[in-house]
Design a protein that fits this description.
Number of strands: 7
Structural class: alpha+beta
Shape: elongated
CATH topology of one domain: Heat Shock Protein 90
Number of helices: 27
CATH class of one domain: Alpha Beta
Helix content: 55-70%
Length: about 725
């Protein structure tokens, strides 16, 4: 390795010396200078038009309308007249006059089409011969504005992101013909980045946002543009689940909060609230939306933004269980967006209605809403995933396991796609970071050393590459050995974490078993220390292993329930109901996981329920084959979970949750992207077919799940 390093450094040094001795060359110098646009006839937008743009951006709607009327009246030719028609279309968009916007945009498109046909047919021979004339370029600029407006309309109003993408790509291509108007390219890049974000292609979104940031840095972009770019990058990272990276960009945006106009503040608070929502930090999310709602209530020209924000606010209220606050918001926003005929927010509101029906226990209503509001192909990925999470809850509670499995597959497929995009984005970031550093270096060199010849510039470039190559090689050599050691350390840590978690079961189990025996003695019931000793011995044996067979687990549960029956009473009964296709000797599960669920059912459900004459207090352990997994359910007819507040998580279930989380983490490391579905569990209230109530805990055990740490290692 050392010989290779010496050879590379020597070769690069020789190349650098050779380049410095080369004679000057016009061909080479052009590679290091910006292309001149002096051969392009520059377009200067009318100052009155720029005043109108400024008025719209600042929310001075009435002033902008006066500017448009004055500009149309004073226009010297058709191109200038339709320049103000563009401004009027923007005015209609800002004021949410959708029909008027479409008419204005259509009028502009017809004018452009007539002019292009005239040029193509030779009617306007002067423009055809001079494709670089001011008039021709003004026409192209009108087309650029027209395409940009179509892209924004499709993205913001209709939600048809594929159409928006087509228009935005055309806009970006047209913007390259106007180097003297770089703000158009900056807008095109940010619009395209936003569409890719809505399409779920977050790696492309971040790349275009950062390209816009590079361009903006060279232009000295405004605070408004910098704010929008920072918000866009932060929200893209949040959608990918990269919340550490999104937090860095939210911090950059927050530093500019004092400079934010109402529109920028809307985007900041709305997307910041969504970031907290995706992290299930609903209280923080609620504070963002309430602050935004308070601000928008005073902005008479931002009714649409207020209704859009309230669709998010109602969902947060639902997640927090504040249904009475969510319902009036739902009704208000449904009426507004139905009148506006905007399908994207209506789809989101339908998802909330389905969730409310599930919460209220009206599964029939939830199924009806699902049937009436299917997931369309064009809907953005974030909304697809939100709907699928609600569907998983519906199908689970309705016992529709085939539909449940289908939704899991769809959810996993999109999740894997986002993960792959995340990996590609990280690679692209390295390239863009290098490009950014190189661009800044070239700019600094141009400002500070204009008199340097091309030979020194090339030598500096080669020296930079030499340093980078040396650093990469040194970094690689050092990290290779470090990662080798780190992999073993990680494996050891993982094993210790599992042992720590599992060791918590032993004192918990011993304490509960002794409590049962002590209570029996205090009540004067028959006790048996031999049975207690056997129970403790078998329990400790199970806690010493990470997994056990379903057969061993059930045998221990039967013995445990026989001991517990003395303290519960003669009306206690354990039933085990397994599907014929379940081989209990082959089904593996975390040891004592089901026993803990049975123990909780007896201790917190059945013992707290008063005996009723002629009625048994029952625990049913049910096993069902679900696609490529086994679903184990522990169902009782006890007092159930308390309503109105989050139930306390006892030690046993906490151990089950931590064990499953660690095993899933290990399984993902060992099996990679093919590890889905993962192990899962849950607990909730349950209504029996006879109307009796109780509690249901469940454990989903995927086939071929890896329980050992033999393959646990760092990703290469």
């Amino acid at each position: 390795m050392k010989k290779l390093l010496v050879f590379i450094i020597t070769s690069i040094a020789i190349i650098a010396i050779f380049l410095t001795l080369l004679p000057p060359s016009n061909t080479l110098t052009t590679l290091l200078t910006l292309n001149s646009c002096s051969d392009v006839k520059a377009i200067r937008l009318p100052s009155l038009y720029q005043d109108g743009e400024h008025s719209l951006k600042n929310g001075n709607i009435d002033e902008a309308l006066k500017t448009i009327t004055k500009g149309k009246a004073s226009a010297k030719d058709s191109n200038e007249y339709y320049r103000y028609e563009i401004l009027q279309a923007k005015y209609f968009f800002y004021t949410m006059q959708v029909d008027s916007f479409l008419k204005s945009n259509h009028k502009l498109c017809q004018y452009i089409r007539r002019c292009e046909e005239a040029i193509s047919n030779g009617t306007d021979k002067k423009q055809k011969d001079d494709s670089n004339s001011i008039a021709t370029r003004e026409l192209k600029l009108l087309k650029l504005d027209c395409e940009m407006q179509k892209g924004v309309y499709e993205a913001k109003m209709t939600g048809r992101m594929d159409s928006a993408l087509t228009h935005d790509i055309t806009t970006l291509e047209l913007s390259e013909e106007f180097p003297e108007l770089p703000d158009y390219r900056l807008l095109a890049l940010t619009n395209l980045a936003d569409v890719y974000k809505q399409l779920g292609q977050y790696d492309k979104s971040v790349n275009y946002y950062k390209e816009a940031l590079l361009l903006g840095d060279s232009l000295g972009m405004s605070s408004a543009t910098r704010i929008n770019v920072a918000i866009g990058i932060a929200s893209a990272y949040a959608s990918m689940g990269s919340f550490c990276q999104s937090a860095d960009w939210w911090k950059k945006a927050e530093e500019l909060k004092d400079d934010m106009q109402p529109v920028e503040l809307f985007h900041y608070l709305n997307n910041r609230g969504n970031d907290y929502y995706l992290q299930s930090k609903y209280e923080e999310s609620l504070q963002c939306f309430l602050e935004l709602d308070s601000m928008l209530s005073t902005e008479k020209n931002m009714v649409w933004e207020m209704m859009f924000e309230r669709t998010n606010l109602s969902d947060v209220y639902i997640k927090l269980g504040q249904i009475e606050k969510a319902l009036p918001l739902l009704k208000q926003t449904e009426e507004f967006f139905t009148n506006q005929q905007q399908h994207l927010p209506l789809f989101y509101l339908a998802t909330q209605r389905i969730e409310l029906a599930i919460i209220s226990g009206n599964l029939a209503e939830a199924k009806r809403l699902v049937k009436e509001n299917p997931i369309p192909e064009w809907i953005i990925p974030e909304q697809k995933q939100l709907r699928r999470l609600v569907l998983l809850r519906l199908y689970k509670e309705a016992g529709m396991w085939k539909e449940y499995a289908d939704v899991v597959n769809d959810y996993t497929e999109l999740y894997d796609s986002i993960s792959n995009g995340n990996m590609k984005m990280r690679f692209s970031e390295k390239i863009m970071s290098y490009e950014h550093e190189k661009q800044m270096l070239n700019k600094q060199r141009e400002l500070e050393a204009k008199d340097l010849s091309f030979r020194w510039a090339l030598a500096l470039l080669v020296a930079t590459v030499t340093i980078l190559v040396m650093l990469v090689i040194i970094f690689y050599m050092q990290n290779r050995e470090r990662k080798f050691r780190e992999r073993e350390v990680r494996n050891s840590i993982a094993r210790l974490r599992m042992e720590t978690i599992r060791n918590r079961i032993t004192p918990h189990f011993i304490s509960n078993a002794l409590t049962v025996e002590i209570n029996a003695q205090m009540e004067g019931k028959e006790t048996s220390l031999d049975s207690l000793v056997q129970l403790l011995h078998r329990g400790i044996e199970l806690t010493d292993v990470e997994e056990s067979t379903l057969n061993d687990e059930l045998a221990f549960i039967r013995f445990y329930c026989e001991v517990e029956k003395r303290s519960v009473g003669s009306d206690f009964r354990l039933d085990i109901d397994l599907g014929k296709d379940i081989d209990t000797d082959k089904v593996m599960l975390p040891s004592m996981a089901i026993q803990i669920m049975v123990e909780n059912a007896i201790k917190h459900g059945l013992k707290a329920k008063k005996p009723q004459e002629g009625k048994l207090r029952r625990v049913v352990v049910k096993g069902t084959k679900v696609c490529d997994a086994v679903l184990i359910e522990v169902i009782d007819n006890g007092i159930g979970l308390p309503s109105g507040s989050k139930p306390k998580e006892h030690t046993g279930l906490k151990v089950v949750r931590q064990t499953i989380m660690l095993l899933n983490e290990q399984h993902l490391q060992a099996a990679g992207a093919k590890a889905q579905p993962l192990m899962d569990y849950g607990i909730g209230n349950y209504t029996h077919t006879d109307g009796d109530t109780g509690c249901r805990a469940w454990l989903l055990l995927p086939d071929n799940f890896k329980y050992t740490f033999n393959n646990y290692s760092l990703p290469q």
